[in-house]
Design brief:
By secondary structure, the protein is α+β, with helices and mostly antiparallel strands. Helix content is about 30%, strand content about 30%. α5 packs across α10, α6 crosses α8 and α8 packs across α9.
């Protein structure tokens, strides 16, 4: 890597043609290169701050990463950690360098409690953190698991994380502006057409629409920039209607905010508030608070236009909560998460410091669970395999009645799907075994248990999902309140009647108290 960055090879500069690639090899190389460059910048900063002997000291890296970036680029915290080793930031046998990782917003409760000291965060209560980006909204459901005490910060764990994809907000804003122009628009005629003020322009025509729309986004950005220090609702942008003459239209900031921006913000507020009632999101819980972060328009933080944005979204969310008949209190926070944490941590211990001392606080299973497939009503065991998303076989379970361990006691409850496949899919039941509690060692995940292993059993009849034979099912599990909810869903079917008459998934809830552990 060092030789690469001092190379004088000018081959790359000999061809200015750019290309796009999704080849995983190139992507991985770029990722490692980026982290290596980041490491070099950190080292230079340490050299100037601590001195040349900084390498002899202990250094801890606290890494906070955006969840979408984590999911789409690295895939998991484990992969991210391995990238830190591959790029040289961490060393396998280097006890002086350690790192802890979290998703952005995961450790936000202490900073929120500091900012809103009057709020009552009760034990095992819930709150939602909504982070708004230009093309998606990240919703995280937190549960309070530790209250603030003398010298101790409160703590929460994330019960569920959901990503809601939205259309690019800047494009949506411009489309909304264009829509309003088609309804009500005042034309500033050029000198040639000033005497012909009855000239009609069709703003739905492709030529006029594309000519205005092409220049609209940068002009809107420029108008927002001009209103950083003073909000002038009569300020405007002027756009030529076509390239043949000087006729133009004026779009005032007042119209952009009161018509178009409000409609875009109200749509985002609806997406956030859907989490309160949609059971696929957080409808099974009763959150006490919603905290909203993020500015998808990249407005200058603290500027007049940014304050106007936060006021509009605060009102939209408050109105939505009222219409849904909920008691949830909402807070749109003007600072970014980074700024809020930076302010809170001034003069205090570093971000995610507790993880280096006590470990990562995780929700873990209080028992071990295994699954097997049997025919109904004969109760004969059916062989099946565990496969990954590419169809590669990971485990093979014979027809001897063995259980496959898929949840391990004392281990974090993973949101990763378990895909199972079988060759005899008719009249089948998924049997779930909850092992009896034992102080002895626990079986590893994906280990096989003898069919006579003692414990409580639960059943899911899979023939209720389809009138046809299905060979593949997806098993998922999550904590809902004090229940472990296990869901089995079927794959795509070829007959449309199957979608109308049959459910897509079936679930069973196993009572299990919330269990926490430092990992």
């Amino acid at each position: 890597m060092e030789d690469l960055f001092v190379s004088k090879d000018e081959f790359c500069g000999s061809d200015n043609k750019l290309f796009t690639t999704c080849h995983p090899g190139y992507m991985y190389f770029f990722m490692i290169t980026y982290l290596h460059c980041l490491s070099k910048q950190v080292e230079e900063k340490l050299e100037s701050t601590v001195g040349s002997n900084w390498r002899a000291n202990n250094f801890w890296y606290g890494v906070s990463i955006d969840k979408k970036l984590l999911d789409t680029v690295f895939g998991s915290i484990k992969n991210l950690e391995e990238s830190f080793f591959a790029s040289g930031i961490l060393g396998k046998d280097d006890e002086l360098r350690k790192a802890k990782f979290c998703t952005r917003g995961e450790e936000i409760l202490p900073a929120i409690q500091h900012k809103y000291a009057h709020l009552d965060f009760r034990m095992k209560s819930y709150f939602i953190v909504a982070q708004i980006f230009s093309k998606h909204i990240q919703l995280s459901l937190h549960q309070v698991v530790k209250l603030a005490s003398h010298g101790e910060d409160p703590a929460s764990i994330i019960i569920q994380d959901k990503m809601i994809r939205i259309d690019d907000v800047s494009d949506t804003l411009c489309k909304s502006i264009m829509k309003s122009l088609q309804v009500d628009c005042q034309v500033d005629y050029c000198s040639t057409h000033k005497s012909e003020e009855d000239t009609q322009y069709d703003f739905q025509s492709f030529e006029i629409y594309s000519n205005i729309y092409r220049n609209l986004k940068p002009y809107v950005v420029e108008l927002f920039e001009k209103n950083k220090s003073n909000l002038d609702m009569d300020s405007k942008i002027q756009l030529n209607i076509n390239t043949k003459c000087g006729c133009s239209i004026s779009i005032f900031l007042r119209d952009i905010i009161e018509v178009s921006l409000m409609s875009v913000i109200e749509s985002m507020a609806k997406d956030i508030l859907a989490s309160l009632t949609n059971k696929r999101l957080f409808g099974n819980y009763v959150p006490s608070y919603i905290f909203v972060f993020g500015d998808p328009f990249n407005l200058a933080q603290g500027s007049k236009i940014h304050i106007a944005y936060t006021m509009i979204i605060q009102k939209a969310i408050d109105d939505g909560v009222y219409l849904k008949g909920k008691d949830t209190k909402t807070f749109v926070i003007r600072e970014s998460i980074f700024k809020l944490l930076q302010t809170f941590l001034s003069g205090k211990k570093p971000y995610i410091f507790e993880r280096f001392v006590t470990g990562t606080l995780c929700q873990v299973s209080s028992e071990t669970y295994g699954i097997r497939i049997s025919s109904n009503p004969s109760r004969n065991s059916i062989p099946f395999t565990r496969i990954n998303s590419d169809g590669v076989i990971k485990n093979t379970i014979a027809e001897d009645g063995s259980y496959l361990v898929f949840i391990q006691k004392g281990k974090p409850t993973s949101m990763k799907e378990l895909i199972i496949q079988m060759n005899e899919p008719n009249n089948i039941e998924l049997e779930i075994l909850q092992l009896e509690s034992s102080p002895s060692t626990f079986p590893e995940k994906y280990a096989l248990l003898h069919g006579d292993t003692p414990g409580a059993t639960y059943g899911l009849y899979l023939n209720c999902l389809s009138r046809y034979s299905i060979g593949t099912y997806v098993v998922e599990y999550e904590q809902i309140s004090n229940n472990l909810s296990i869901k089995v869903s079927r794959g795509c079917m070829g007959d449309i009647e199957n979608y109308v008459d049959k459910r897509y998934y079936t679930t069973t809830n196993i009572p299990e108290p919330l269990t926490l552990a430092y990992i």
